[in-house]
Amino acid sequence: MKRRHILTASAAVCLLMTASLGHAEGWSPERPMTMVIGFAAGGSTDIQGRVLARSLEEYFGQPVNVVNQPGGGGAVALTRFLNVEPDGHTFMFGVQLGLTFSPIVTETEYDIDDFRYAGTLVGGQFGVVARGDAPYQSFEELVAYGRENPMTYAQQLPMDQAIMQLIADQEGIDLAIVPTGGGGGMAPLLLGGEVDFAFSGGTHAQYTPTGEMNVLAFLTRERSPFYPDVPTLVELGYPYAMDDFRSFFLPGGSPDEIVQAFEDAARFAVEHPPFVETTVENTLHPIVFMDAVETEATIREIRAANEALMAN
Amino acid sequence: MDFSAVGAAAAEALTLASFIGIGGGVLLGYIVGVIPGLSRSVAISIAIPMTFYMSPFIAISFLIGLSKGTAAGSAVSAILLNAPGEASSAATSLDGYPMAKNGKPKTALQVGLIASVLGDILATIILIFVAIPFARVALLFGPYEMAAILAFALVFIAGLSGGNIFKGLAAGGLGIFLGTIGLDNQTGLPRLTFGYTELMDGMPLIAVAIGTLALSEMFIQSEKLRYDRENMSVALKKDSSDRITWPIFKTIFPTILRGTGVGTFVGALPGLGPSVGSFMSYGMTVKAAKDPETFGKGNPKGIAASESADNAVIPAALIPLFGLGIPGNVSAALLIGAFAIHGITVGPLLLRDNPELLYSIFAGMILASVIMLVLGWYGLMVFAQITRVPPHVVIPIVIFFCLAGMVLQGYGTFGLVILMAFALLGYLMKKYDYSFVTFLVAFIITPMLELNLRQSIILSRGNWEILLGRPIAMFFIACTAIALIALIIRTFRKEKPLAEVPAD
Questions:
Q1: Minimal Cα distance from B202: which residue of A?
Q2: Total domains present in chain B
């Protein structure tokens, strides 16, 4: 899997190059566009999406309106997206979990085949964290500690719970798993000493610089560019991974030239400084670019992996 | 305290944008406060969608400014119209209206304004000095403590707001039931969504809040319109002797201090609203006075007692909110929703993770008090005129804002249908005297209560003894049991409720 991690500094020169390319050939929009975001205003997807909309205005030369359709981790927006005209003027900046996870646990009206995928812009950084002053500083030490002591773990998604349960069973750890209702609920539990270790969808970025939290392992397939020394679970010998990317979704039946246009737009945005800076510095997510083909392949791959995991 | 953060906060609070945002909030609140029938929580629930495109600091300060404005504005109609703009100013009209009738309407308004502003500023300062150390120890409040406090708050609200504890518990039970709709927070499986993807995140809070609070209230108001003729408002005349003087201020100042103390104490307890604060303060002032027979006939101390406590409750209700993420009353509960919309989790880590934001909000709150003083002082004449705006003009405008606010949420027609359903529910609850306040607070805190209870049960591994090492949790569990028993006994004796606690 080819992928480029781009951090803030690299972008200025590329901007000049790509800006002049603009919409030189192929499809281009004729009227204002609508970007659908499946989350409420103010969350990280919304913040990234709104800055992305500005970058796209520059790229396409048309105003881009942002519409929030929150609910069900993106499922509400995807359901409504089934009825959208495939003319490229309405598109979604979407979180893949709505496709790779929601259809497994609940009956959705849509599935992967109902949409087209035109390029990935942002990656996730799911990890396992512990307090900075915990008696274990690495995942191996945590496992060794757990063999001797009963442990508690704060989950956020059924998938990370499934992974930790599998590892606990394999290593003989007596593990109690509690729900947290998101990263905002996880931090007080972990820092207050109520739980021994926890899942983090990105909240850790606020606490690792001060040493209050340690990332012990990443659940993603690749290491995070922000924590190059922290291994992934796969590297540690546990064959489980959990990934999520944010990509352009288009209505099913969109012609190839529109998909191509959005792939090029994604290529432009991941090197456009305002979008890159906001994503990396404000929302603490890594920039990850994938083209249309790789995006769809990744979605199917993650879905299959999640299905296998949840079947356990 | 981190002084560089304080400096930055002050700088942020003094930008033009924040002046416009906070000033706009106070002004809007003032107008809402003046108009009888338009209450604070109605205004906040309608205003939350307006804040979507503001920065978090301006959005929150705008909403807090709005709350403060309503508390000050409500005195105007209480004094001139004998109809309090907020239920919490009912005690103000006891002395305010007679004073206005006696030819001193302006003095009465100025006493009300100064008491409001002083109560407000002092309570805000107390909030700052209490909330910061409190937030430092708040991590000691784990899931056991949170679950116990939330259960206590629910029982307390149920008992105080309806009079009949069983009706209160029924309303709370309905709130809890509706609060459980949505994805299970551990397994991710949908509960009671009946296949509607829109319900996966639960009943939309804005629809429930606007429906039960605002829209249903408009139905009630328009119904009243058919039977009630308007009260005549006392007009303000040019009279240079009709103004507040230094001797008057000196006599009311101790009353203001007492009112602020009472208001702050009441506000910091979960579940007690400004109405309890203002009546308690009024009662204590009458008891402490050497001339109790002058009250009810136009004693400025009566106005000062009620208004200072009314305004002090608002900042004080933020102490449990900022410290623990637990709302003190409906307005504070709505603020949790507003924070969430802006991606901020209110709770023990707010001070740690967003100190600039919190300090900016504190600075914004002080600024709001100052703006309130200026607006109230120079705008008295204008606000006095608003008491004359007839309800048949106000009601359609508010209904429009209710619907527009829901559409802004992005739930489409589905949201409007839910909104209408909750407006009907709110109407029936008000008609049959079931506390919609209890219902709404129960609805809002249910996800929190469920989560903390589940965490406690799992972390304790089913072992009750763990509570012995948790004195704070034990204390609140004991309080809950005692409150429940006391309230049941009171219901059976058919005593009068401690105080009416309407929406605040």
A1: A71
A2: 1
CB pairs under 8 A between A and B: 112
Domains and CATH numbers, chain A: 4-124+243-311 (3.40.190.150), 127-218 (3.40.190.10)
Residue of A205, A239, A233 whose CA lies nearest to A219: A233
Query: CB contact, 8 Å: B180 with chain A?
Result: no
A101 contacts: CB under 8 Å, gap ≥ 6: A73, A157, A159, A303, A306, B188
Q: Residue A293 pLDDT > 80, yes or no? A: yes
Q: How far is Cα B29 from Cα B63, in angstroms, rounded to an integer?
A: 9
pLDDT tens digits for B338-372? 787 676 778 777 877 778 888 888 889 999 999 99
CB atoms within 10 A of CB B380: 17
Q: How far apart are CA A215 and CA A213, in angstroms?
A: 7
**Residues comprising chain B, all counted:** 504
Query: Which pTM was predicted?
Result: 0.77
Q: Tokens at residue B150, please?
A: 């939330």
Provide the domain limits for residue B171. Answer: 3-493
For residue A91, count other CB atoms closer than 10 A to its CB: 26
Nearest to A68 among B143, B349, B410 (CB): B410
**Within a domain: B470:** yes
Cβ neighbours around B334 below 10 Å, total: 25
Chain A neighbours among B 343-372 (CB < 8 Å)? Answer: 343-345, 347-349, 353
B503 pLDDT tier (thresholds 50, 70, 90):
very low
Residue B504 within any structural domain of the chain: no
Q: Contact, B336 vs B325, CB < 8 A?
A: yes
The yes/no answer to whether this complex scores an ipTM above 0.95 is no
Question: B181, B180, B201, B414: which is closest to A71 by C-alpha?
Answer: B201
| Residue B478 vs residue B352, higher pLDDT | B478
